[in-house]
Design goal:
By secondary structure, the protein is mostly beta strands. It has helices spanning about 10-25, 320-330; strands at about 1-5, 5-10, 30-35, 40-45, 65-70, 90-95, 115, 140, 160-165, 190, 215, 235-240, 260, 280-285, 305. It folds into two domains: about 40-50 and about 55-175, Ribonuclease Inhibitor (Leucine-rich repeat, LRR (right-handed beta-alpha superhelix), Alpha-Beta Horseshoe), CATH 3.80.10; about 200-330, Leucine-rich repeat, LRR (right-handed beta-alpha superhelix) (Alpha-Beta Horseshoe), CATH 3.80.10. Strands 3-4-5-6-7-8-9-10-11-12-13-14-15 form a 13-stranded mixed beta sheet, with no helix packed on it.
């Protein structure tokens, strides 16, 4: 029995591994895998970099090779071979910064996949089988060509992290709304979808009771759904640089909110119970056409407020507003 990077392997497997390593021209990391059914140890391999013309079409058929991590980035790759979908033990797939127009139709066969990075490609859609990735926890599809948010996310019941940013400096994702299906991904904890064309959120967006972080800055959102206040785990919300004109009263039910960024919107009034947000550490209301402040504003921590009396038109600068500013400033 020989050793290869700390893993005991039979001589024939050492030869196979060395052969693959020579072809790829990259070092492979080996991971021991203990099977309860077989006493022998099988190696797990991490391909940290692969040339686009040396994709592992035969590796998936080798019973002694369990590829768990595959990274093919910055290769101008236009098409992914179907053989990729035979890598049954694949957990992490990084295809960032290529030229992919589509994914293999059988991508859903990667049942163990937990993380996939598809940033900076030319994808217009995701295949229908994508919703079979029940164990997927991390999905990043930023800087692609989606003009409609992919409905095939509907089955991603384990998804915790979703990133789908646009890019105002170049042509990119241009969808105007999330599908209703996103409201049923109850495991979601973080959503990033900034610099895009979003105009509104689904009515049942508040179903995402495990959501902790939300970044929707630099979009075209004009209102928030009433259910927004049901986001009981939300701690940080960045809604800056949108077109929001008013806030739902339910916003005052956010029991864990610490940072709420509403910089540069079209907000004229605040909910009357805004003072109920006891956990707030930062509320940014700068560059909004505010016309009044509710009395409950005085219940907020003065150090948490980012608000400027100069934002008020002189004709709207009532004595009540002046008194509130005076008290807030000590």
């Amino acid at each position: 029995m020989l050793k290869f990077r700390g893993v005991n392997l039979p001589p024939k497997e050492i030869v196979a591994l060395k052969s693959i390593e020579n072809k790829i021209g990259e070092k492979l990391k080996a991971f021991p895998y203990e099977s309860s059914k077989k006493p022998s140890i099988k190696p797990f391999f991490e391909f940290t970099s692969i040339q686009s013309d040396l994709l592992p079409s035969t590796y998936s058929k080798n019973q002694n090779l369990h590829v768990v991590k595959l990274k093919i980035t910055n290769k101008n790759l236009k098409k992914l071979p179907e053989e990729i979908c035979e890598l049954k033990f694949l957990i992490d797939l990084n295809l960032d910064n290529n030229s992919l127009i589509e994914l293999p139709s059988s991508i859903g066969a990667l049942e163990m996949l937990k993380r996939i990075d598809l940033d900076s490609n030319k994808l217009y859609s995701l295949p229908g089988s994508f919703n079979k990735l029940k164990g997927l926890q991390f999905l990043s599809i930023s800087y692609n060509k989606f003009n409609k948010f992919p409905e095939s996310i509907s089955g991603l019941s384990s998804l915790r992290y979703l990133r789908s940013d646009g890019d105002s400096s170049r042509e990119g994702n241009s969808y105007t709304q999330f599908p209703d299906a996103i409201c049923y991904l109850s495991s979601l904890e973080r959503i990033y979808s900034s610099c895009g064309s979003l105009e509104n959120l689904p009515d049942k967006f508040g179903n995402l009771i495990n959501l902790q972080f939300l970044d929707l800055a630099n979009n075209n959102i004009n209102e928030l759904p009433r259910s927004f206040g049901n986001l009981s785990s939300l701690e940080v919300a960045n809604l800056s640089n949108n077109l929001i004109t008013s806030l739902p009263n339910s916003l005052c039910n956010l029991k864990k909110i610490e940072k709420l960024n509403l910089f540069n919107n079209e907000i004229s009034d605040l909910p009357k119970d805004i003072g109920n947000l006891k956990t707030l550490k930062e509320l940014n209301l700068l560059v909004n056409p505010l016309e009044s402040l509710p009395n409950s504003t005085l219940l907020l921590n003065p150090d948490s407020l980012r608000i400027d009396i100069e934002d008020f038109p002189k004709e709207k600068l009532t004595q009540i507003v002046k008194d509130i500013f005076k008290k807030l400033q000590g």
